Amino acid sequence: MVRNMKKEAIITLPNPHLRQKSARIHVVTDDVRKLVQDMTDASLDWEDSRPHEISAALAAVQIDTLERVVIIRSDFEDKAVREFTPLINPEIVKYEGQLISDYEGCLSVSSFYGKVPRYSRVRVKALDLDGNEVRFKADGFLARVIQHEIDHTNGIVFVDHIHDKHDAFYRLDEKGELRPLDYDKDVAHSVLWD
């Protein structure tokens, strides 16, 4: 299968579109299905260029399309499984469990990782590609990924949750290990905020 959309289509901070709210989809059309394919292609192309990272998910805004569409990887453990589940108009119906801080990265935040607090369980409602409503519970890493992507549809980037936490920022080294950053030197005056 020919991939059309490349990783270069993924916008990164400081692009102001990442801080805008996305519009709801009223009808799931062929254009929406094509958008999901483009998002999948861009995600996999990005991943293929990174030896130590996977593309866990992507929101449509990240390819500069302000619509409430996200794709979530079907298997986070196995890079060989290259399938994503699309969610149209996803929303969290209920937050459950406890707030847990853990590492997050983002295809639209070059070179930065952060330790972000998220709920350990969520209940989600969305539409599938046939326009049918789906409801499910997610916990652990999947719950974290879903909260991260729904934030994107609301114009929120993960760094916004940890703006004032000086010890929450990291960078991946050449061996794939996360190393803490010096906030004043590496973060405070970066492209993360305008």
Number of strands: 7
Tell me about the largest β-sheet. 7 strands, antiparallel
Number of domains: 1
Task: Write the CATH architecture name.
Answer: Alpha-Beta Complex
Radius of gyration: 16 Å
The CATH homologous superfamily: Peptide deformylase
Contiguous uncertain segments of 5+ residues: none
CATH class: Alpha Beta
What sequence of helices (H) and strands (E) makes up the elements?
HEEEEEHEEH
Which structural class is indicated by helix and strand composition? alpha+beta
Discrete helix count: 3
How far apart, in Å, are the first and last alpha carbons? 40 Å
Q: What general form does the structure show?
A: globular
* Average residue-wise pLDDT: 94
Provide an overview of this structure:
The mean pLDDT is 94. The protein is 20% helix and 30% strand. The N and C termini lie far apart (40 Å). The chain has a single domain, classed as Peptide deformylase (Peptide Deformylase, Alpha-Beta Complex). Strands 1, 2, 3, 4, 5, 6 and 7 form a 7-stranded antiparallel sheet that branches. A hairpin with a 5-residue loop joins strand 4 and strand 5. With 194 residues, the chain is α+β, with helices and mostly antiparallel strands. It is globular and about 50 Å long.
